[in-house]
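During the second year of the project, the team shifted from modelling isolated chains to modelling whole assemblies. The rationale, set out in the original proposal, was that interfaces cannot be judged from single-chain predictions alone. As a representative example for this report, we include one of the complexes processed in the last quarter. Its constituent sequences, exactly as entered into the pipeline, are reproduced here:
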Amino acid sequence: MQNKEESKKLFIQTLGCQMNDTDSAHIAAELNKHKNYTPTHNIEEADLIIINTCSVREKPVQKLFSEIGQFNTKKKEGAKIGVCGCTASHLGEDIIKRAPYVDFVVGARNISKIKDVVDTKGAVEIAIDNDDSTYEFARAETSMYKTSVNISIGCDKECTYCIVPATRGDEISIPPEMIVEQIKKDVANGAVEVMLLGQNVNSYGRRFSDKREKTTFTKLLQEVSKIDGLERIRFTSPHPLHMDDEFIEEFAQNPKISKCIHMPLQSGSTNILKAMKRGYTKEWFLNRAKKIRELVPNVRITTDIIVAFPGETQEDFEDTIDVIEQVKFDQIFNFKYSPRPNTAALALEEQTVPDEIGSKRLIEVIELHKKHQSELMQVNVGKTMTVLFENLKPNGEISGFTDNYCQVFVKGSDELLGQFVDVKITEATRTALKGEIVK
Ligand code: SAH
Ligand code: SF4
Ligand code: F3S
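Output from the structure prediction step:
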């Protein structure tokens, strides 16, 4: 039973990836259900302040302590501070040692324990072998038309630059029936689109908590697409290594799957990919991208690129540029290599690429990508595209996304919200389209 008089306010700040967004939604829902916390955007009225952290690159970690210091000065008398997420996993009790006003620390693999630690001063829950994969979280708040559902926890890869396996532990798949059940509930509440989330979604189904038969991501996609009322399926991140023909064919022919795919390249150089332990070559990546483009002509392909990985020569970097030229990504998330604790690439320190070279390479990738983006977006002008409208702006514009996930703005009213509507595209910028409703 919830007691209204005890209602407390929760302020939660989320950094990092979409899994952290889902984790934060679960934290908020759990604390609402079990501890009667309701959300606030005003830090000064919060009884509990949580920061859900990311440690994938060094900068956000450096910022963490100045940020929680700020929270400590702004918080009201008696309010608590909790640190959750990936930096919580890897720094653990050191966070409380360095910032004693922090009340508790909950690692990214221990989110299910939030309701138990919230009232325990000094609690540190960061076990890397904790298994949340069959824990029934309270229903996370979702946007009206979209929901995000985790399909696995952890990551079994050992990419040599990446801290995630050390903060989220081994990969365990969430049972398909739990995933389908959750999506059905969200659809009953108005969702028409789902984002399936995992660090490596297309290795889904290899290990479960119980001794059940293995399955595959392709089979999961087929199960999820049977859900009545669910119109659009998205997923992230898939790994290029596991993009087998079966998967690509399902992606191409399943009408519910959004035709926008993330193909995290990291580097175009086979030598660097080897040093990163990515498991594929430049040629494999190009072959997969080509097959996807052949089967899905309107596909949009997004990627992640790391420049200046230790030992990256000019020639290696030119391989990355060559792949960008050949694939023409619709969106690139660019990063300069950042050395992380608990990663194998730390041993390559003596091959560090000078920072100014890293910066130059980053700029080159950004500039080339901008050029491609403009060209790719321009091609849409004059086309008619189906848009799911989801957001009404105060200026009378309404926006949504096409099936291949371009953002489109039109003049319109709230009766379009939640509808799939044909739009004639009249204008393109580098990042969005404008159009008119086809009557
Ligand atoms: N599991 C996902 C992404 C995890 S992290 C995947 O494999 O696609 C998101 C991105 O951050 C990675 O794809 C990578 O490009 C980048 N990244 C990870 N570790 C990094 C590091 N040490 N330095 C710079 N970028 C990094
Ligand atoms: Fe990190 Fe690689 Fe796992 Fe992605 S697949 S989370 S980059 S180890
Ligand atoms: Fe960051 Fe952890 Fe996600 S390190 S990118 S929050 S998995």
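The chain has a mean pLDDT of 95. The first strand starts at residue 8 and ends at 14.
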